[in-house]
Amino acid sequence: MTQKLTLEHAKELDRSDNLARFRNEFYIKDDHYYMDGNSLGLLSKRAEKALYTSLEDWKEHGIDGWMDGVEPWFYYSEKLGSMTAPLIGAKQEEVIVTGSITTNLHQLIATFYQPHGHRTKILADELTFPSDIYAIQSQLELKGYNYEENLVQVKSRDGYTLLEEDIIDAMKDDIALILLPSVLYRSGQLLNMKRLTEEAHKRGIIIGFDLAHSIGALPHDLHEDGVDFAVWCNYKYLNSGPGGVGGLFVHERHYGKRPGLSGWFGSRKDKQFDMEHVLTPAESAGAFQIGTPHILSSAPLLGSLELFEEAGIQTLREKSLSLTRFMMDLLNQELPEHGFIICNPAEDDRRGGHISLQHEEAARICKALKANNVTPDFRSPNVIRLAPVALYSSYEDVWNTIRILKKIMENEEYKQFENTRNVVA
Length: 425
Prior knowledge:
Elements: H1 7-15, E1 33-34, H2 45-61, H3 65-68, H4 76-88, E2 95-97, H5 101-112, E3 121-125, H6 130-142, H7 147-150, E4 151-154, H8 164-169, E5 175-181, H9 193-202, E6 206-210, H10 222-225, E7 229-232, E8 247-250, H11 295-311, H12 313-334, E9 341-342, E10 355-358, H13 362-371, E11 374-375, E12 377-379, E13 383-386, H14 395-410
Parallel strand pairs: 1-11, 3-4, 3-5, 5-6, 6-7
Antiparallel strand pairs: 2-8, 7-8, 9-10, 10-13, 12-13
Helix pairs in contact: 1-14, 2-11, 4-11, 5-6, 12-14
């Protein structure tokens, strides 16, 4: 930063923003600054329209909506998968929209965790989202292993980030499977997935990633990088709605591998209604579906993905990096004396889509921000996450967010609140 940033600077950036038109596609409250798109994205008008289309198909066709609707439900998961594939650098057949992030984790760990000989352990990290660890622990126990002995978690040296070197050093010959986040949910650190995949494969280890905090915020190259599998939710940067259906990726070299958890919607499409008691799995990622698709919580994703097709994931990444850089520069300019520590990496190639601020009063500061029409996110014990989202956030939004945060700190407005998290933080 070589010059003092001003409101006019923010407005000039907005005037030159070639993604600014997409803001009108979303329902945004006036004088409200939504900085929590990394937890739940806002509703778009096209997502709303897509949901109404499926409701109309149900109303008009009843059960025949599976084949005769405007958007036939029988192929809905595959269509959404093909639309998602360009965002993660995958072939269309390698992606399916199904389940939830945790049920998909259970499916793919059950499929790819095949302990044998001395290879019995699963490698993860100590900073990942707890649900991923719960799934690993459960799958280890289901295979008859004590998770305290067979779950290896890479330690963080600073409590917020990981070193790829430490992860690679932990890839011992007793590791059967690795599961890591692409972007750490608390600090926003982006891991080098290509490097980690190459190192895992050199050692004969299967590796998968949780893309919850990266899909829709930045491009991936899962197929070319050789990643074995990945899972994600669609309700953060992909704006599919609360509890929206998740997604999974399985590299084509694993086609034909029997799912660890079999269900009828994993059948080959032409065999599904034969009602045979021997599963004929689909020859694609579709094999890893379990139950009937949740159409009404899948439908909004269709409308949202249309926006991503038009905007382009690389263009979205460029704006996301610019927004978060602008926010960091403003924080350093306006709040140098108020105890904030930026704990996300500063480098563009190591930063995801959100800014992570450490502060001892984080919980009550978040409450004060909400009282001032800013929606942040609190992560225990002391982190404020702020996520300006490229599709609908403006530079002026970022300016006003930091202006309000400065007012809160200068006037000590946060002191009227308890420094404890709400039930939903």
